[in-house]
UniProtKB/TrEMBL annotation:
Cyclic nucleotide-binding domain segment(s): 30-119
Alphabetical list of Gene3D superfamilies matching this protein: Jelly Rolls
Protein name per its UniProtKB record: Crp/Fnr family transcriptional regulator
Keywords tagged on the record: Activator
Keyword Ribosomal protein applies: no
Organism for this UniProt entry: Fredinandcohnia quinoae
Keyword Repeat included in the entry's annotation: no
Length: 191
């Protein structure tokens, strides 16, 4: 798992190997079993964030009819931010559940701030990662909003084909904004 972290440190920083190893040694890496909730909708705000080293985490919420609606899947080398620092009285609008057995880097705001003071390039790296993530998320969201259901499915085939094998069809359907039956029809048409 260290090699994934080293890859990011190499890509975004000029830290020495010793500095990179010191940072990795300070990180908390936790294994979570499939079905473990990282946060539940309605829970108190969290100051935690995660980085997926292995596995898949699903983000979903219950709509007004009590149905689960999947809003994201986080897989290898993706960050999950839960910082609600600006709105401490707001409860979580969604749940995060481990879709598979997962290995995650777990951090909190306080420990990150300490590491940023010690390794200033780490803060620059994190900002660069988050800027890239935000730009990608904004572009994907804009494409998603203006796309037909079939085009959304084709985007998954192109950009995240692993999800087709990793998540149940009904969860993928809500993520794509359609019913499982519609997804089945689209899959048959494309095949």
């Amino acid at each position: 798992m260290e090699e994934i972290l080293m890859k990011y440190l190499d890509k975004y920083t000029t830290l020495t190997d010793a500095e990179q190893q010191a940072i990795i040694n300070e990180l908390i890496i936790v294994k979570f079993k499939k079905g473990t909730y990282l946060i539940k909708q309605g829970d108190s705000p969290s100051k935690k964030c995660f980085f997926v080293l292995k596995g898949c985490v699903r983000q979903y919420y219950l709509d007004e009819d009590g149905k689960e609606v999947t809003s994201n899947f986080y897989t290898e080398e993706q960050a999950i931010l839960l910082f609600n620092d600006g709105e401490p009285d707001q409860s979580s609008d969604y749940s995060l559940i481990c879709q598979e057995d997962c290995v995650l880097v777990v951090a909190d705001l306080e420990s990150e701030q300490k590491m940023y003071k010690q390794y200033t390039e780490l803060e620059t790296m994190t900002r660069s990662m988050m800027e890239n993530f935000l730009a990608k998320a904004q572009n994907e969201h804009a494409k998603f909003i203006r796309s037909s259901p079939e085009a959304r499915y084709k985007m998954i085939l192109q950009n995240r084909p692993d999800l087709l094998k990793r998540v149940p069809q009904h969860q993928l359907a809500t993520y794509l904004g359609m019913t499982p039956e519609s997804l089945s029809r689209i899959k048959k048409r494309i095949q």
